[in-house]
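Example for tutorial group B:
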């Protein structure tokens, strides 16, 4: 039997997709040490190896 760790996708409130510019469509999943962000509207995907808080965010946060 294979023991596989499942990662839950989480939406990022207020995030704007860099491609389609829609707000609240970005979800982030952590898989095998990588952070994958994906827009559920247009399919934009971005992969970062070993994300840290020191790195610039992949997601544009909307400020009002």
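The residue assignment follows.
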């Amino acid at each position: 039997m294979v023991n596989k760790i499942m990662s839950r996708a989480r939406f990022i409130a207020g995030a704007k997709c860099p491609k389609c510019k829609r707000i609240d469509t970005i979800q982030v999943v952590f898989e095998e040490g990588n952070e994958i962000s994906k827009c559920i509207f247009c399919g934009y995907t971005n992969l970062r190896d070993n994300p840290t808080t020191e790195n610039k965010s992949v997601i544009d946060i909307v400020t009002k």
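The chain has one domain: 10-61. Compare this with the pattern of hydrophobic and polar residues in the output above.
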